[in-house]
């Protein structure tokens, strides 16, 4: 296995064409069984690691990546001195929330934490809150060194 970091361009995602069902089954059924009790922590750090593989320079890059990765439409809804609040919504998010298996958004939270850190240059952490009623995921990215 190569240890060399390969930076992925946003344009590489244009070359992929897949459906989401297989991804969802792997992510929400198979991987949690494999990862066990540590799944939430591991998904979070998998997301952070994944973000490091992309050339992310702007908030717009983050929005594009969320869309291209099939995670949904990410929108910054509030910007505070030491935190950003984002909403994630899409038909795919609504369908995942209605799925017959447990879903979570720890991978996206980790990715968003690292991506915002790359853009802003400040350490941060991200927590997510699911609003089942309106099928929206709210992410709070808090700057830890502010």
Structure description:
By secondary structure, this protein is α+β, with helices and mostly antiparallel strands. 42% of the residues lie in helices and 21% in strands. The protein contains five helices and four strands. The chain has a four-stranded antiparallel beta sheet. Helix 2 (39-52) runs parallel beside helix 5 (106-120). The termini are far apart. 24% of the residues are buried. The model has no long low-confidence stretch (mean pLDDT 89).
Features:
single chain, alpha+beta, 4 strands
As laid out across the biggest beta sheet, the strand order is 1-2-4-3
Oligomer: single chain
Distance between the termini: 37 Å
Number of helices: 5
Instruction: Please write the string of helix (H) and strand (E) elements.
Output: HHHEEHHEE
Beta-strand percentage range: 15-25%
Q: State the major sheet.
A: 4 strands, antiparallel
The assigned structural class equals: alpha+beta
Look at the structure and give the mean pLDDT: 89
Helix content: 40-55%
- The tally of beta strands, per DSSP, is 4
Gyration radius, to the nearest Å?
A: 15 Å
Give unreliable regions as ranges: none
Per the principal axes of the C-alpha atoms, what is the gross shape? globular
């Amino acid at each position: 296995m190569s240890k060399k970091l390969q930076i992925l361009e946003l344009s590489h995602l244009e070359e992929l064409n897949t459906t989401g069902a297989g991804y969802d089954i792997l992510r929400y059924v198979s991987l949690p069984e494999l990862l066990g009790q540590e799944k939430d922590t591991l998904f979070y750090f998998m997301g952070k690691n994944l973000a490091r593989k992309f050339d992310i320079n702007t908030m717009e890059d983050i929005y594009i990546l969320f869309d291209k990765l099939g995670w949904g439409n990410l929108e910054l809804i509030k910007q505070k001195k030491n935190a950003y609040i984002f909403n994630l919504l899409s038909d795919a998010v609504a369908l995942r929330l209605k799925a017959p298996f447990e879903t979570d958004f720890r991978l996206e939270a980790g990715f968003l934490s690292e991506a915002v850190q790359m853009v802003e240059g400040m350490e941060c952490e991200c927590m997510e809150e699911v609003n089942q009623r309106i099928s929206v995921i709210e992410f709070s990215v808090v700057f830890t060194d502010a």
